[in-house]
């Protein structure tokens, strides 16, 4: 089985409340529409996919339901979950509230300066959040189908941008 976790354009478009948002409260796809009007190729390219936020409980429940549906309709030996990373700093309400609650800080709108306390606070939190999220998905799957193998795309953990939250927590 295959499932794309963060990159989920159909659900992004159907559920505005599930969208990853930039500091200006718009998603990449919303920003892309502006790019079309301005002729900005960079914004247009970034609008190709819709990103859904793993901190949104309804979206997580949807991922669980989709997993259940795969297991119900197909005999799968394993499921490959793709895209377990943060394409950008997500400034949706769920992320901002959780970050504030857990760290006592405001979520930075832009990438903090490398090596600063704010940098380490943000990215260590992103690693932990992604690790917790994929562990929840694994636990849910194993509860339904203990023999089904689970694999996550770990490419960003090995060769990608280290700030994307795909670290050993995902690999574990």
Helix content: 40-55%
Class from secondary-structure proportions: mainly alpha
Order of helices and strands: EHHHHEHHEHH
- The number of helices is 8
Overall outline: globular
Strand order of the largest sheet: 1-2-3
**Average predicted confidence as pLDDT:** 90
Instruction: Report the count of strand segments.
Output: 3
Percentage beta strand? 5-15%
Rg from alpha-carbon coordinates: 16 Å
Work out the oligomeric state of the chains in this entry. single chain
Largest sheet: 3 strands, parallel
First-residue to last-residue Cα separation: 20 Å
Q: Low-confidence spans: pLDDT under 50, at least 5 residues?
A: none
Molecular structure report:
The protein has about 170 residues and is mainly α. It contains 8 helices and 3 strands. The chain has helices at about 10-15, 30-40, 40-45, 55-75, 95-105, 115-145, 155-160, 170, and strands at about 1-5, 80, 150. The protein has a 3-stranded parallel beta sheet with strand order 1-2-3, covered by helices on one side. Helix 4 packs parallel to helix 6 (about 115-145). The mean pLDDT is about 90.
């Amino acid at each position: 089985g295959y499932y794309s976790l963060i990159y989920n354009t159909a659900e992004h478009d159907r559920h505005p409340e599930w969208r990853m948002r930039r500091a200006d409260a718009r998603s990449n796809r919303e920003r892309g529409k502006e790019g079309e009007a301005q002729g900005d190729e960079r914004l247009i390219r970034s609008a190709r996919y819709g990103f859904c936020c793993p901190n949104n409980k309804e979206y997580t429940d949807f991922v669980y339901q989709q997993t259940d549906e795969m297991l119900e309709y197909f005999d799968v030996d394993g499921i490959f979950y793709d895209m377990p990373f943060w394409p950008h700093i997500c400034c949706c309400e769920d992320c901002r509230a959780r970050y504030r609650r857990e760290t006592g800080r405001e979520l930075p709108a832009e990438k903090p300066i490398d090596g600063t306390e704010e940098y380490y606070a943000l990215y260590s939190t992103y690693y932990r959040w992604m690790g917790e999220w994929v562990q929840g998905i694994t636990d849910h799957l194993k509860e339904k189908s203990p023999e089904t193998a689970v694999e996550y795309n770990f490419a960003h953990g090995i060769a990608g941008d280290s700030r994307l939250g795909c670290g050993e927590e995902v690999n574990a």
